[in-house]
Amino acid sequence: MSSFEDVFGTSPDGSWRAPGRVNLIGEHTDYNDGVVLPIALPNQIVVTASRRTDGRVAVASDGHDRVVEFALDELAPRSVSDWAAYPAGAAWVLREAGYPIGGANLRFASDLPSGAGLSSSAALLCATAIALLGLAGQEVDPAEVARLAQRAENQYVGAPVGLMDQTASMCCTAGHALAFDIRSGALDQIPFDPEADGLRLLVVDVKAPHRHADGEYAARRKSCEHAAAALGVPALRSVDYAELDAALARLDDDVDRRRVRHVVTEIKRTEDAIALMRAGRLRDVGPLFTASHVSLRDDFEVTVPELDVAVDAALAAGALGARMTGGGFGGCIIALVEAPAADNVLSAIEKAFAEHGFTAPSSLAATPSAGASRIS
Question: In what residue span(s) does the Galactokinase N-terminal domain sit (predicted)?
C-alpha cells in the first residue's frame, strides 16, 4: 500500500473521516418526505489531504490503480466519471454554493464495503466535502454539508437519492440512532445501545451488490411521485395512515397502490419504533423490522432471493426481527437478536446460503458510531 507521500510527493495537511450507515427502519421513505432511523457505522472512508495552489484536484484510492486529476474551474455535471465522480461532485457543489475551496491532493482509504447498501457513496462525498472545506479553513454546519452532498449525488453524479444517507454520515452520534424527519428537517438523537439490553444488531452483507444505476431505484421514486400527484398531495408523507384504504381506493394503478401502501405503513412503523425505543422497549421493535421486510418484498418489490433467504434464516434461528436495509436489489440485512444467539443466527444464514448455492455472506459490527469529523 503506497503512502500519501509516495503518491503525491508531499506531506499531508490533515485527515478527515465520514462513516457509512445502516438504516434501522424507514426504507424508501426519505424521498417521500417521511421519517428514517439510521445509525452511523464504525466502518468509514478516510481522506488524507494536502493543499495545492494550481486550482487542480488529484484523487487516489487504495482500491484504484491510477491518480485522477481535474481542474476546479472546468468541473461540470458528469465531467468526471467512475469513482472519481464523487470527489469531483463534492468539489463542484461546494464551488457552486460559493465556498472558496482550492486545489488539493486527496487520498482515500476505506473499510466500508462498496455495493453493500451501507452508503459508501454518501460517505465518499461527505469525506471529500469536509476535507476540502477543512483545507480552506471553512466551518460548515454538518446538516448543510449533508444537503450539499445530496445535491452533488443528484445533480453531478446523476443518482436520484434522498437525504438520509448523507445526513446520517454527517449528523449521527455514538450510542444513538438518528430520528430524521425529512419534511420538517428535525433531527433527534434516540438512545440506542443493544448491548446494554443484552441484544446485538447484526448486519449481514448478502454479497449481491445493490444497483441503483439499473433504473429500479428511479422507477420506484417515479411511481411514488406519480401516486402523490394522483392523490393531490405534495408527497406521500401527507397521506394519513388512518385514511390509507380510502387513498388506495382512489388509485387506478395497482403498482402505485402497492408503492403507496409500503411508504405509508413504513412511516407508521418507523414512528412506532421510535416510540418503543424511547420507552426502553427495544425488543418490541423486532416485529416491526420483520413487517418492514415483508412490505419491501411484497409491496415495494426491492428484495432479491439472497435478502429473503437471509431474513427467513435469521427468523427461523430465533432473531427477534430481521429486514433488508438500504435501497434494495442486494446489499445487507439487519437482524435484532439476543446476544447469546448471535453466532447461531449467523451460522443459520451461512448454512441457508450454502444450501441455495449463494456466495457466502459476511457480517459487520453494528455499533452506533459518530458522524463525520476531522482526525488530524
Answer: 3-51
DSSP 8-state assignment for residue 282: G
pTM, two decimals, is 0.93
CA distance 231 to 239: 8
Using an 8 Å Cβ cutoff, are 261 and 32 in contact?
Answer: no
Question: Cα dihedral sign for 228, 233, 237, 240?
Answer: negative
Q: What is the grid cell recorded at 325? A: 436495509
Count of the separate structural domains present in the chain:
2
Q: Please report which residue ranges of the chain form alpha helices under DSSP H.
A: 4-8, 85-96, 120-135, 142-151, 164-171, 216-231, 244-249, 254-278, 286-298, 305-316, 342-356
Query: Can you list the residues of the chain whose pLDDT is less than 70?
Result: 1, 209-214
Residue 43: closest CA among 376, 373, 367: 367
Same domain, 48 and 72: yes
pLDDT at 209: 67
pLDDT for 213 equals 44
Q: Are residues 252 and 330 in the same domain?
A: yes
> Which residue is catalytic, options 30, 165, 205, 299?
165
Q: What range defines the domain where residue 86 resides?
A: 4-188+370-374
Q: In terms of domains, do 217 and 305 share one? A: yes
DSSP state of 189: E
Separation between Cα atoms, residue 154 and residue 212, nearest integer Å: 12
Is 33 one of the catalytic residues?
no
Give me the pLDDT at residue 188, please. Answer: 98
Cβ(30)–Cβ(146) below 8 Å: no
**pLDDT value at residue 215:** 82
CATH number, position 159:
3.30.230.10
DSSP structure class, residue 102: -
